[in-house]
Amino acid sequence: MNKAGKVEGEGSKAQARREQVLAAAHACFLQSGFHGASMAVIAKAANMSVGHIYHYFENKEAIIAAIVEENVQHVLSNIRSVRGAPRLYEAMIEKAGERLDDVMDTGKTALMVEVLAEASRNPHVAELIKLSDQTPLKLLGELIAEGRQARPALSQEELRARAEVVAALFEGLQIRALRNPDLPRAAILPLMQDCIRLVLER
Amino acid sequence: MNKAGKVEGEGSKAQARREQVLAAAHACFLQSGFHGASMAVIAKAANMSVGHIYHYFENKEAIIAAIVEENVQHVLSNIRSVRGAPRLYEAMIEKAGERLDDVMDTGKTALMVEVLAEASRNPHVAELIKLSDQTPLKLLGELIAEGRQARPALSQEELRARAEVVAALFEGLQIRALRNPDLPRAAILPLMQDCIRLVLER
Amino acid sequence: MNKAGKVEGEGSKAQARREQVLAAAHACFLQSGFHGASMAVIAKAANMSVGHIYHYFENKEAIIAAIVEENVQHVLSNIRSVRGAPRLYEAMIEKAGERLDDVMDTGKTALMVEVLAEASRNPHVAELIKLSDQTPLKLLGELIAEGRQARPALSQEELRARAEVVAALFEGLQIRALRNPDLPRAAILPLMQDCIRLVLER
Amino acid sequence: MNKAGKVEGEGSKAQARREQVLAAAHACFLQSGFHGASMAVIAKAANMSVGHIYHYFENKEAIIAAIVEENVQHVLSNIRSVRGAPRLYEAMIEKAGERLDDVMDTGKTALMVEVLAEASRNPHVAELIKLSDQTPLKLLGELIAEGRQARPALSQEELRARAEVVAALFEGLQIRALRNPDLPRAAILPLMQDCIRLVLER
DNA sequence: AATGAATGAGGGTTCATTCAT
DNA sequence: GATGAATGAACCCTCATTCAT
């Protein structure tokens, strides 16, 4: 009921504690996966008793939810950073390099994969990641529409398809990096950029 | 004390039993994930006692490994199916449609994600998927080289990069489909094909 | 280090606080039982912090003890209400209807059962309810003796047995109502009254 | 699903194991109550590992359910034992003495109270005891109807009320014995018998 | 070859109680 | 007087694995 959720606009102390847990959980999940990391281990990593974690999070799943949310915010701010640029497409394409580095961080990817795996069998998490994906995807669609300028406008479905393919490129590369961490980044970047340009301008 | 592994060139009976287990495990893993599916459930699905499974597999991890291996073979055969086609690039691009359907099968993706998650923390599985990824990737690279025809030849790294991007497109879309199963397939396919063409012919 | 118990003849404020806790605890115990109601829930119901409850009660058991005590007083006052009536037996028998309603209140019974269950394993509570039962039972015996009037006097044991049977009728019906809340009250009342009359006048 | 329940018409070994658990649980619940007795303690008492108990019972509640059922069977056989007697009422009244001893066994009562307490907050157990009470009550009603002979027949509700009052007498005495184990049995028995006769013949 | 009874460590979670503020 | 953050042992339950048959 009012276990978690009560920690809302509270003092920074509580907020700090929460983040302490999240940081610890993040690290533990990275190393052992969602199921592999026990609450006991997380508690130890957070320098906190097991029971006390439950003051800040209703259960283990709530911790994952918070971490997913964190990740969404990160992606969102990345997308937003190109907004309002004068030559939008060029900005997006240039940004691709930065995103590429981001995406090759195996730590982050491992966590994302962990979450996706969980989603396959936990409907609650599935719903969560579906929802959390909508905002960035919509934003990406808007950016694409915005940048069309002279070119003919696109239907909603066309916009969606383009956003999906761009997203797929990055998420796909993320997976590739997980499979084999030494991707030839330098050779890949221009290919990526060409693909993005193609999808945007086509 | 007869560990598993001794079942090598044995009668087809044993082999059939093994496959019985694998089929059951596959189905169970699909539904509940590696950690979610218990040995008891797998045994029941395989019409076999729990204990008897241990005659054919040393432990649960060995089953997982076998399933991963299976998955690799599936991907390989997919790529091989375009080999030797007269107009190779066109064949690959046409094949994209089929692959797209394949890739949007959330069941298969769930398993792939499961494997990747497992790899993040189980070095044995990590090694396995790294190795298992090399063959298809190399094959893809060869196909790309083979199809260049008139165009200038590419360095190994260039080939690798192209193969990675094509792979990323498909694996990325696979992830996208997992996040949101109702992708606009019709609008996505031509975008994908253009991207592939671009990467191949560039 | 001021344990509870020191709160004796103190200001009405402290007393009010104590009762606040008891009222809350009563409500919570009714709904969830002694073990089901957590201190946290009781504290919330009492509009008080968890820790502060420990200023007024040494521990949870002390709260339970206080509630048991309360219950005893309730039963006592019920019996006293017929005392001194001119035609005592008739008064008792008439009262039976009221008592019946009282007894069919499943909320009260739930608490009584809770107390009895606790008594089976907590010697302190056992002692408490044994003592607390003596007064009403003795009172009931006196009433019976008092009402014999013309009839021959009864030995202590005879009186005790009669009181026990009357008590058993009511407590038994209480249990019956708990097992099945829709007792045929109308048909039961005259039977009860006849039984009581029989036991009293025999 | 098919955790428990599978142990049905199986070999006596499984049946014996089940009873081993029930006996242990019975003893533990008696001593510490349903919530007080941990599965670990029950397991130790049953000379069995914790996990193995779950081969025979789906969960702790299922153990209680089985014990409740056991008790019902006991009561039923008690009621049945007078069936078909030539002078039915006399037989029932004579049986009262035996039942009285039964009812004064505080061990059994403690368990019954435990179950009732649990029922107050666990709807599943509530349903269970409601159901389990119906059969004996119905049987008792039938016996009463059967024994009326010359006397005018009774409506269903009248029968029910009479059965309830008889049941209340015994269950009430059970509670009395729990509150104070040294009831004056000798003096109580004739009172009980008179009450039963009254209720039956009225 | 085949069974499934048996183990016990470890999982997530709850809760009475304490104590610094 | 009053708070609620903090503890940690104990709860029920699950599961990979072993072994007598």
Topology:
The structure is a homotetramer of 202-residue chains.
Chain A: H1 12-36, H2 39-45, H3 50-56, H4 60-80, H5 88-103, H6 106-119, H7 123-147, H8 156-179, H9 185-201
Helix pairs in contact in A: 1-2, 1-4, 1-6, 4-7, 5-9, 6-7, 6-8, 7-8, 8-9
The structure holds a DNA duplex (21 and 21 nucleotides).
Give me the count of strands of chain A: 0
What's the shape of chain A? elongated
Average pLDDT rating of chain A: 87
Structural class of chain A: mainly alpha
Count of spatially separate domains of chain A = 2
Q: Give the CA-CA distance, first to last residue of chain A.
A: 51 Å
Instruction: Work out the oligomeric state of the chains in this entry.
Output: homotetramer
Architecture (CATH level 2) name of the largest domain in chain A = Orthogonal Bundle
Q: Can you summarize this structure?
A:
The structure is a homotetramer of 202-residue chains. With 202 residues, chain A is mostly helical.
Provide structural commentary.
- Four copies of one chain form a homotetramer.
- The first copy, chain A, is mostly helical and 202 residues long.
- Chain A folds into two domains: 1-58, Orthogonal Bundle (Arc Repressor Mutant, subunit A), CATH 1.10.10.60; 64-201, Tetracycline Repressor, domain 2, CATH 1.10.357.10.
- The first copy, chain A, contains nine helices and no strands.
- Residues 1-9 of chain A have low confidence and may be disordered.
- The interface between C and D is large, with 49 and 50 residues.
- The structure holds a DNA duplex (21 and 21 nucleotides).
Structure keywords:
homotetramer; mainly alpha; Arc Repressor Mutant, subunit A; Tetracycline Repressor, domain 2; 2 domains; 9 helices; 0% strand; disordered N terminus; DNA-binding; DNA-binding transcription factor activity (chains A, B, C, D)
